[in-house]
Amino acid sequence: MIENLFSMAGKVCVVTGGSSGLGSYMAQGFLEAGAARVYITARSEDKLKAKAAELSGIADGECIPLPGDLSTIDGIKSLAGVLQEKEDHIDVLVNNAGIGTGGAFADMKPEVWDMTMDLNLRSPVFLTQALLDLLKANATVEDPARVLFTSSVAASETHAHVMAYSTSKNAVEKMTPLLALALCDDHILVNTISPGRFYSEMTRGAWQDPESERFKAELERIPAHRYGGLEDIAGVAVMLCSRAGSYFTGEVLNLDGGHRFRH
Ligand SMILES: NC(=O)c1ccc[n+]([C@@H]2O[C@H](COP(=O)([O-])OP(=O)(O)OC[C@H]3O[C@@H](n4cnc5c(N)ncnc54)[C@H](OP(=O)(O)O)[C@@H]3O)[C@@H](O)[C@H]2O)c1
User: Fold this and answer.
1) In the chain, pLDDT over 70 holds for what percent of residues?
2) What is the pLDDT of residues 106-119, one digit of tens each?
3) Which of 25, 39, 165, 199 does the annotation list as catalytic?
4) Domains along the chain with CATH numbers
5) How confident is the model at residue 262 (pLDDT cuts 50, 70, 90)?
6) Is the CB of residue 201 below 6 angstroms from any atom belonging to ligand 1?
7) HSE toward the beta carbon, residue 39, CA cutoff 13 A
8) Span from the CA of 40 to the centroid of ligand 1 (angstroms)
9) Distance 24 CA to ligand 1 centre (A)
10) CA distance to 42, 91, 125, 157, 249, per residue, from 50 (Å)
11) Ligand 1 atom nearest to 227, measured from its CA
12) Which residue in 90, 96, 192 sits closest to 145, CA to CA?
């Protein structure tokens, strides 16, 4: 039983923001768990192609790059159009692409607010809607399709200078059970992973000098005393998207080494 419990054999997956960081870790997890095809998306085509080539080499499944900007509705429609041409169904959609913004309230610009909300909140909603028919196509009670969102510990933190980012992620968490209920009769499970600090491009500034006093102090504050990495999120994403996690829906899983208790 145990090897099948976490198997994603034959699954077709889409991971947004899959060219680096958390998205690439989840894509790698799916491929190593046996996924047939994992589509990864991002804007920068070179980085995306390089990551797809790297991940295609680690397992039997294929990693396919689909470049595009998901912060616009046109970008969402165009990605959905390409997927509709290539696939007759999708088993797993991971809405992970996101942007971190911050700064003093007095200097906050509407463009930055909109950019944050467009990519972190609007894009996951309308990409899921655009891919609904593909997600429904093979979904059954026994083998439901999965939609995952990537939130952040920032959703439950209260730092005045990360207003737009925290609000966008808090809204993703609020939306999770709403969408789970909206899609339950289509046999689509909807869950959110809410990460704390992870090694990625977004956090590079904090960890690139691991000997710095600032980074050491940050690790001290995290109850697990470390940043998260590949195995931490790949393990949870594979669990949520395989048989093992098929009785979770509308759930927000805090994956933060206890960070939210002591930020
Ligand atoms: N790292 C952490 O500690 C942490 C903690 C909590 C939550 N998160 C969340 O985790 C998710 C992934 O972030 P990360 O830390 O892995 O950052 P990352 O390494 O910077 O990866 C972000 C990914 O999203 C893509 N992306 C950015 N803007 C996009 C756009 N407009 N359209 C399409 N793709 C876009 C990036 O590629 P391009 O730039 O080429 O488009 C890249 O593939 C985000 O939602 C973030 O909020 C991260």
Assistant:
1) 100
2) 999 999 999 999 99
3) 165
4) 2-261 (3.40.50.720)
5) confident
6) yes
7) 22
8) 12
9) 10
10) 12, 24, 28, 35, 34
11) 3
12) 90
